[in-house]
What we know:
CATH architecture of the largest domain in chain A: Orthogonal Bundle
CATH architecture of the domain at 265-419 in chain B: Alpha-Beta Complex
Distance between the termini of chain A: 59 Å
Strand content of chain A: 5-15%
Order of helices and strands of chain A: EEHEEEEEHHHHHHH
Number of strands of chain B: 21
Oligomer: heterodimer
Largest interface: A-B, 82 and 83 residues
Number of helices of chain A: 8
CATH class of the largest domain in chain A: Mainly Alpha
Structural class of chain A: alpha+beta
CATH topology of the domain at 265-419 in chain B: Flavocytochrome C3, Chain A, domain 1
Strand content of chain B: 5-15%
Largest sheet of chain B: 5 strands, parallel
Number of helices of chain B: 18
Number of domains of chain A: 2
Helix content of chain B: 25-40%
Largest sheet of chain A: 5 strands, mixed
Shape of chain B: globular
Number of strands of chain A: 7
CATH topology of the largest domain in chain A: Fumarate Reductase Iron-sulfur Protein, Chain B, domain 2
CATH superfamily of the domain at 265-419 in chain B: Succinate dehydrogenase/fumarate reductase flavoprotein, catalytic domain
Amino acid sequence: MEHYNMNLTVEVWRQKNKDDKGGFKSYKVKDISSEMSFLEMFDVLNEQLVHNGEEPIAFDHDCREGICGACSMYINGKPHGPWAATTTCQLHMRAFKDGDTIVVEPWRAKAFPVIKDLVTDRSAFDRIIAAGGYVSVNTGNAVDGNSLPIEKEKADSAFAAAACIGCGACVAICKNSSANLFIGAKVSHLALLPQGEPERRTRVINMIEQADKEGFGACTVTGACEAVCPKEISIANIARLNKEYMNASFSSDK
Amino acid sequence: MLDAKIPAGPLDQKWSKYKSTCKLVNPANKRKLEIIVIGTGLAGASAAASLGELGYKVKAFCFQDSPRRAHSIAAQGGINAAKNYQNDGDSTYRLFYDTIKGGDYRAREANVHRLAEVSANIIDQCVAQGVPFAREYGGLLSNRSFGGTQVQRTFYAAGQTGQQLLIGAYQALERQVALGNVKMYSRHEMLEVVVIDGKARGIIARDLVSGKLERHFGHAVLLCSGGYGNVFYLSTNAMGSNVTAAWKAHKKGAYFGNPCMTQIHPTCIPVSGDHQSKLTLMSESLRNDGRIWVPKKQNDTRRPNEIAEEERDYYLERRYPAFGNLVPRDVASRAAKERCDAGYGVGSSRQAVYLDYADAIQRYGKIELGKQGLDTADAATITRLGKEVVKEKYGNLFDMYEKITGENPYEVPMRIYPAVHYTMGGLWVDYNLMTTVPGLYALGEANFSDHGANRLGASALMQGLADGYFVIPYTIGDYLADEIRTANIPTDHPAFVAAEKEVSDRINKLMGINGSQSVESFHKRLGKIMWDKCGMARNAKGLQEAIQEIRALREEFWKDVRIPGAVAEYNPELDKANRVADFMELGELMCMDALDRNESCGGHFREEFQTEEGEALRDDANYMYVSAWQYAGTNNWQLHKEPLNYEVVKPSQRSYK
């Protein structure tokens, strides 16, 4: 792999706090290696800002290996930037070339208010999980792990849905700011497993209800969420969510 | 005198006897008792959820924006449990024995045996929560092998086991939040322990969004704040992982156990340049099928595919025929360093070895051929089928490697090099997981107790969940049973006022320095000292130098660090400065501990103490103890020793040959 260096212009959304109006600011960064990760380019920029006595750009990040779901930049009009199935932290500067201008914004959704610069408040997702995204089993109640065989195919599908990292890219790209891919992933994960069966109906209704309260929009099945999901969560999970919701809503045996 | 409070009786009956005789708290009293939990990784989330279920009033804190982001999420390979589902001779005793041996006989027998005992319950609990472990076609749970063992006892969920286990614990936690048993404080960082009449009674936390300091009372405080690998700057830890909570506890009286015991993981993606902010692990499970090699010729700059089979040195298979590529992590890491130091390293930095999947692809390809009855297929078909199998098993790891390096590991061997990954050391705890401060507990990676001088793969997840789900719910009751008459202490108590003042004074001091160098630059310099002189190999001279260098660096930090922004706002630079200041104190203690331990064991390798073949040379006569360091003022610590009594396992020279 050939490596190269580049000079770039980065247009970043700066917003002091949730009440500030905010706006774009333009920065130049030099000698960025194609081997750097996107966030390492931000580290370089921030070091530059600290050095010049300016406030560095706030952004959420933690594991930097694509699994914690903290990083959340809207890069050139796309959550997590140009690479498919990639979180911001795993995007590398090979994706850009010398002289490029890169525009970086925070997630934008009513349910994810901006805290500062590129940092948003995604606690609404925690409250959706708290509304029903679990199996009610207290510690110590479990039977032997192999007492209940689970069809491999179903277990694999449940795993694929459970791979969601809760980053919120699906909401950020959605024209309705719908959280249905996120909810669908959790509802599917648990609905596909026998352990999730007893609370199947209440779970889906409560989670949807909570999402409505949080201000997420309705789903019109456009599919942008699936296209930008860094973990490739399938839109089939939204279909399953809808099915589960219908079954739960129209069923008489609650 | 340190009292580990190990229950009397035969090793395999200690825990069951403890459980049936420890004190209990009745449900009406549990409602009145408040417990603070710091950190929401596997240990913290499982503890907070389980204690909430029991009826205690729990407050849980994490510095991340959501409890689901704790760094347990990044664990890839798996979780060990002595289920013996594979009928290959596993048992509680074997898991116990492997862990003691893997830890190079520097762990406490009673704690490790308890860990092995509860391991099976963890799997059951997680399955019941809906954790989607890998399964076989018959619908039963699948296992794989991991380093340092000869049985298959590792349960896994592709390369995302930590994620799935953490999400399970997080969901259990959120359920308790919804039920009102747990109150969650995200984006909060603990900056002080409040001790009243010798007991931990609360914390001072900073709301990282508003910058405000808060006082929280608790009848007990649980530190589940993870390890301190980021003292090296570059590690596989998350950017935010830090020692601050544990360090504050240490300075308030909790002894620090075996601080020098650091695990360097053998299979990480090598450093690519000065811009590097963290290192990425490639799961140990890759050593199941991958073969590690370097060229037989020094400074060989040919491409890997141009180096013929007979010109390759599969040095782990050569040196350790019994365990081959699956030797424990400390052994594999040192062997890689040895080859690179000797001039056999590969890649542009020469600080890397190859992890090669070509053989595995052929082997799996042929198996598939057999399965599909295609006995006349050509080489290309075998390779294609083999790649498909490898993709199914390790696809996400290979994708990650390609994103980071730009190279396709299906075609070119991966380049790997050891990196700081885990810290076996941590706050000293007794059998109850209580530190030397009554009412202050440490769970998971934050304590020192179970892994001795080296942790086996897939055992960190096991320990975190064992502590949180199955140990603390019992042991905390034994303490709190005597606290039922302690009414909530109002947070205007002078101890809270004083603790808060200490924190705000320190923050103001940091902000007031207004120097010229960034926090990040100090952290990098600290990391370099630690890696060069207290890393994979250490010697007395280097350690003595490191102590002086760290002290000088610390002095420079307190004179010249620059933290932009204000206190009363979201200020990640200030958060980082608080953490780096603590790392700089810890670094010195780590070097002191490494200097004190005149032997090599597990991850602690003192160059002066090695066998002729370059293996770690333990000194059981003089160093069979846990170092427990008591803070005694700036640059000053007092060493206490907890002797390790091996009643069941007979320590021997660890051999994987």
